[in-house]
Amino acid sequence: MTDGNLALKKAGLKVTLPRVKILELMQGPENQHISAEDLYKTLLDIGEEIGLATVYRVLNQFDDAGIVTRHHFESGKAVFELASQHHHDHLVCLSCGKVIEFSDDVIESRQDEIAMKHNIKLTNHSLYLYGVCTNDECDHGDT
């Protein structure tokens, strides 16, 4: 049994071809922070005939099971990444949509201090920083 099949079983999901194919694609580094529509197009490109509604349904099931994490960046469209073992935050370019993952111990420590100051025990958090790439490779548009 593959790692993907084990992940599905552990999450209480039946091992089906659409779930396995979607999970396999999500494991590629190029498919992190991918929308359901882009995942669907990738499936079509590799000859998999899995409907868009099925892709949405599977991603929702994966999100509910903790296999993927859903993000709502500034574009307004949900993107998904595999739920990781390590916490990280995100930098998002508002022009080209590039997403950079980063970790910073100082930021994490400061967030904990702020929560304690306000008598809040953090159970989860997300940090998204938005801006515009400063390199020539970014499609800045009109910004």
From TrEMBL:
This protein's cofactor list reads:
Zn(2+); Mn(2+); Fe(2+)
Q: What subcellular compartments does it reside in?
A: Cytoplasm
Q: What is the lineage of its organism?
A: Bacteria, Pseudomonadati, Pseudomonadota, Gammaproteobacteria, Alteromonadales
Q: Does NADP show up as a keyword for this record?
A: no
The protein here is known as Ferric uptake regulation protein
**Which residues are Fe cation-binding?**
87, 89, 108, 125
Q: Which InterPro entries does the protein's record reference?
A: FUR (IPR002481), Fur_C (IPR043135), WH-like_DNA-bd_sf (IPR036388), WH_DNA-bd_sf (IPR036390)
- Binding of Zn(2+) occurs at 93, 96, 133
One Pfam family matching this protein: FUR
